[in-house]
Amino acid sequence: xxxxxxxxxxxxxxxxxxxKASKSILNFNDSGLSILEISHRSKDFVAVMEEARALxxxxxxxxxxxxxxxxxxGGASLEFLMVPYNLxxxxxxxxxxxxxxxxxxxxxxxxxFGETVVVASSKESNYNHIPKNYTIPSDADYFHCTSNNxxxxxxxxxxxxxxxxxxxxxxxxxxxxxxxxxxxxxxxAGAQKNMGPAGTTLVVVKxxxxxKTGRAIPNILNYEQHISKESMYNTPAVFAVYTSxxxxxxxxxxxxxxxxxxxxxxxANLLYTEIDRNPLxxxxxxxxxRSHMNATFLLENDALQEQFDSLWKKxxxxxxxxxxxxxxxxxxxxxxxxxxxxxxLVDVMKELEKNS
Length: 356
Prior knowledge:
The protein is of the alpha/beta class. 44% of the residues are buried. The longest helix is centred in the last third of the chain and has 22 residues, at 256-277. It has helices spanning 15-26, 43-59, 75-87, 101-110, 223-228, 238-254, 256-277, 305-314, 339-355, and strands spanning 4-5, 67-72, 93-98, 115-121, 143-146, 148-149, 154-155, 166-169, 186-190, 201-206, 281-283, 294-299, 317-318, 329-332. It starts with a strand and ends with a helix. It has a 7-stranded mixed beta sheet with strand order 2-10-9-8-5-3-4. It has a 3-stranded antiparallel beta sheet with strand order 11-12-14, covered by helices on one side. A two-stranded parallel sheet has the order 1-13. The protein is globular.
């Protein structure tokens, strides 16, 4: 039976990516060796890394604009630490927007490096919206935000204009919608949402913002070191990088971010229309801040939970339970999820209404 995978991450990837990646495990590039056993210094893999890094900049329209793309390790959680290490000056200051669990984690890691100003937070309302009309201190070394919040189902629809470097954790909506990516000085994203399997983390950084902290940075945490070694300072996550390249190639062949944004908008509109129409359900995020990647919703009557759970499992739906910290339901609609899968969930919601 076909599964409709709504997992929040690691998540669904395109079927053709799975097929190509699986073949590479047995025989990569007709070398007679598996992708899992080749040297990361081999000509074949160096070509993979070079193409992946270049394709990232191409898809984000950042070619020739002073940016470098890196594939690192440690997940977005390590970037919580690397960002202040590389950007906050000694005795410096950083500004953060607190919009959820992961933003809160980034704030915690920054505090030991210097003054960490939380310019706004939606914590008191259980992160059900994106704060607006906040002021970013002009003397901060950088401003950090999280574009999409997987747990609470909110997404930034606009980004502030400021005279300081802007850093954004785009782990759960990278490559999903059109933005002017040149407005960001550093973007990072764990691969396991829209790009590939867990194990590698994409960092896109404008080189001119680096090397200004006045602090000693361990080499393994220093972006400049990783740039100088062409993202090969240490052994990269070979399979994760290769699978990410396959996904980036799939996205380019689809028509790039312009094409996938239209598809993502259609999926989100389909599901949110049903959530708002169906009296048995209610959304948890403020309507103007709803995420197109992670739709969070509740049953109006908890007594229907067993019946609803039975229906969606019978339909082959997987991974829509809400995060353990908030409960309810969460439908993660990343790039590779087909709109047909969203229609299956909508049909189940309608069936519950009909039978109740």
